[in-house]
Design brief:
Blueprint (H helix, E strand, L loop, with lengths): L10 H4 L8 E2 L3 H10 L3 E6 L4 H11 L2 H10 L1 E6 L4 H15 L6 E5 L5 E5 L13 H14 L1 H17 L12 H14 L16 H14 L2 H16 L13 E2 L7 E2 L2 E2 H18 L2 H18 L9 E2 L2 E3 L5 E3 L7 H20 L25 H16 L6 E2 L2 E2 H17 L3 H18 E2 L6 E2 L2 E3 L2 E2 L6 H18 L3 H16 L32 H16 L2 H10 L2 H5 L8 H12 L3 E5 L5 H11 L7 E5 L20 E6 L2 E2 L6 H7 L6
Parallel strand pairs: 1-3, 2-3, 18-19
Antiparallel strand pairs: 2-4, 4-5, 6-7, 8-9, 9-12, 10-11, 13-16, 14-15, 16-17, 18-20, 20-21
Helix pairs in contact: 9-10, 9-11, 9-22, 11-12, 11-15, 12-15, 13-14, 15-16, 15-17, 16-17, 17-18, 17-19, 18-19, 19-20, 19-22, 23-24
């Protein structure tokens, strides 16, 4: 019999709808039930493409005896961390503070007041490697709850007090300057992996936001070291198994430091961020590899993540059926030599093995390999290689495909809008701009609620139905970022208006008196702590995403209120940039834009004039950090930047400004390109 989750909209929750566990969603009624029964709350947090979440579910939540014990002694709540990042953030902070580590599935035991007292992540079905079994954990918590209630209550109160006492080290007043950004670069240099690219050891995650900072830092200062770290890391990832050498797109992370074996789930946010990084690397260097990877990643998102409604789904699972009925991680993507020979024949299989780094021993599990592009691989004729790829792709399409989480997350779709719009403009792919526009339309049509007095952005939708959870700060910041990129590419000022609407809501509902930013709105559901985190995780922190959007909107409009809010928010870079640059990459990237101006570019001319198009393309391809671009008729009302911007001798012209103070206009696209290059300092 299905449990309460049968009515959920989250694909992750629906995966648990047939568990024998009597699950609740996160709702007041669940806590009232715990209070009525005087039992603890068991909170389990995960997401649909989480491998170990599936393992815990199959081992414990699908077990009748375990479920019966859970139902008798606990009120059990299941949360999709992608729908409720606020709940996830608050309790993950408690888990990390108590255990020194975190991850998913996240396991938390708490009182009916939401006060946590015991934590963990994955627990096996029997004791293993020093870990207690899941049933031992349940029994231990139950024993403590019944036998030592005062002790449990005091532990819970102390944890909540400790969390409440935590404060963000916000940094000194004023914006970060060149010194802080130079120190951040030095810190990254110390952590850089000279051999394999990227930062730190295994597991190794794509450093998308740090790469954006490095590219912007190079554009502003001319630092060849910054550009080299970015370019080498991008090449290493693109050649590694973390990149899908057949279908395009990136897996979540590599389990080794050489990018060889990925954790195979593919997330929308990773691919949107990396698509944009590779496009920006091509813009800076002209790299053919960067162009290819940017376009392949864009095409992957459109082909495999686009929903019927025009948005983009959250993720593809890491696991899939291996052909025997077992769900196995990587089964869809890995190849053995025998499988290559079956598809390609002996001769082409030998070529493919050498080209893609497939060995008889295997680089993954059970004699299979993840396809790579080794540096010392053979040169293969392009026509022959295309034929090999096509046949392998066709064969792979016959395998059971990984599951897809179809929910549309506002923030991640904002990132996708920005990436697809820019790729479409850079590489003459109007179809990608169309896909970006359709996703933006969906966000406006379905996720916006502009009703007076309660205007808000919804976090998720699925199958054209909006979810009930309010957007968090990252939704507002990333969607505004996407709209601003789309405005620059299309010249449609309505996207600037929508971005301004979101930025105004940020100022009204998320900003603290000291200029710091909260992750939830002031009228959001009250948790044991109002979450506030300026550090990047898998995607830009809401704090820095909002700062970037506020800064760009101010550059478009001249709004001092929005610029001041951005500057105050960037004070956190003082504290975190020099000592933890890997974890505030987007904040550093926004600070680069602030130091550069950011520059404001107005391109004016008749819509059908080819010269206007050349100037517009040149403006979009400029590397000036965070530059904003407005396009329209002379003195057009689509963008404030167009006001008092006439033609030059009857011809289209471009105006480059800072704080609405402009240099002489130019009708020469080559002169414009030089002007939007780096400022050397």
């Amino acid at each position: 019999m299905a449990n309460r989750l049968a009515h959920a909209t989250s694909p992750y929750l629906l995966q648990h709808a047939d568990n024998p566990v009597d699950w609740w969603e996160w709702e007041p009624a669940a806590f009232e039930e715990a209070r009525r029964r005087n039992v603890p709350v068991f909170l389990s947090v995960g997401y649909s493409s989480c491998h170990w979440c599936h393992v815990l579910a199959s081992e414990s939540f699908e077990d009748e005896l375990t479920a019966a014990y859970m139902n008798e002694h606990f009120v059990n709540i299941k949360v999709d961390r992608e729908e409720r990042p606020d709940v996830d953030s608050v309790y993950m902070e408690a888990v990390q503070a108590a255990t020194g580590q975190g991850g998913w599935p996240m396991t938390v035991f708490m009182t009916a007041d939401g006060e946590p007292f015991y934590f963990g992540t994955y627990f096996p079905p029997e004791p293993r490697h020093g870990m207690p079994s899941f049933m031992q954990v349940l029994e231990g918590v139950r024993t403590a709850w019944v036998g030592r209630p005062a002790e449990v209550a005091e532990v819970a109160r102390k944890i909540v007090r400790d969390l409440a006492g935590r404060r963000i080290e916000y940094g000194k007043a004023g914006v970060p300057g060149p010194e802080e950004l130079a120190q951040a670069l030095l810190g990254l240099t110390r952590e850089y992996d000279d051999r394999h690219g990227g930062f730190g050891g295994a597991p190794k995650f794509p450093p998308s936001m740090v790469l954006e900072f490095l590219l912007r830092h190079h554009a502003r200062t001319g630092s060849e070291g910054a550009l080299q770290m970015a370019a080498d890391t991008c090449e290493a990832m693109a050649r590694g198994g973390i990149y899908d050498q057949l279908g395009g797109g990136f897996a979540r992370y590599a389990v080794d430091r050489a990018w060889t074996v990925p954790h195979f789930e593919k997330m929308l946010y990773d691919n949107a961020l990396l698509c944009r990084v590779y496009a920006h690397l091509w813009r800076a260097t002209g790299s053919d590899l960067a162009r290819r990877v940017a376009l392949e990643t864009a095409d992957f998102m459109v082909r495999e993540l686009r929903t019927r409604e025009g948005g983009f789904a959250s993720a593809l699972d890491a696991d899939s059926d291996d052909g025997t009925g077992r769900h196995v991680e990587g089964a869809y993507y890995a190849w053995s030599p025998a499988q290559l020979r079956e598809v390609l024949g002996d001769e082409d299989a030998e070529v493919a093995m050498a080209y893609f780094g497939v060995t008889e021993e295997g680089t993954f599990e059970h004699g299979t390999s993840v396809l790579q592009l080794p540096q010392d691989g053979p040169v293969v004729d392009g026509v022959r290689l295309a034929g090999i790829r096509d046949r392998l792709l066709a064969a792979r399409a016959g395998r059971p495909a990984p599951g897809r989480d179809d929910k549309v997350v506002a923030a991640w779709n904002g990132l996708a809008v920005a990436a697809l719009a820019e790729c479409g403009a850079y590489f003459d792919r109007p179809d990608l701009v169309d896909r970006a526009t359709e996703a933006a339309d969906l966000l406006v049509r379905l996720h916006f609620d502009a009703a007076a007095g309660r205007a808000r952005l919804a976090r998720t939708s699925k199958d054209g139905v909006v979810g009930g959870n309010a957007g968090v700060l990252e939704d507002y910041g990333d969607v505004a970022e996407g709209f601003l990129a789309l405005a620059a590419v299309t010249g449609e000022g309505v996207w600037l208006e929508f971005a301004g609407f979101l930025c105004d809501l940020v100022l009204d509902r998320f900003v603290a008196e000291d200029g710091s930013l909260y992750d939830t709105a002031h009228d959001a559901e009250a948790l044991i702590r109002r979450p506030q985190d300026p550090t990047d995780n898998a995607a830009p922190a809401g704090w820095t995403a909002a700062a970037g959007a506020l800064l760009s909107y101010a550059a478009h409009t001249g709004s001092e209120a929005h610029r001041t809010a951005a500057e105050r928010a960037l004070g956190v870079v003082h504290a975190l940039g020099p000592r933890a640059p890997r974890f505030i990459g987007w904040g550093l990237a926004v600070a680069e834009a602030l130091l550069d101006g950011p520059r404001e570019v107005a391109v004016v001319g008749a819509a059908d004039d080819p010269m206007r198009e050349r100037l517009h393309r040149t403006a979009l391809l400029g590397t000036a950090p965070g530059a904003v671009v407005a396009l329209g008729e002379p003195d057009g009302d689509e963008f404030p930047l167009l006001t008092d911007r006439p033609l030059v001798e009857g011809r289209p012209a471009a105006y480059v400004c800072r704080h609405f103070v402009c240099s002489a206009p130019t009708a020469d696209d080559r002169a414009l390109a030089r002007e939007l290059g780096a400022i050397r300092s």
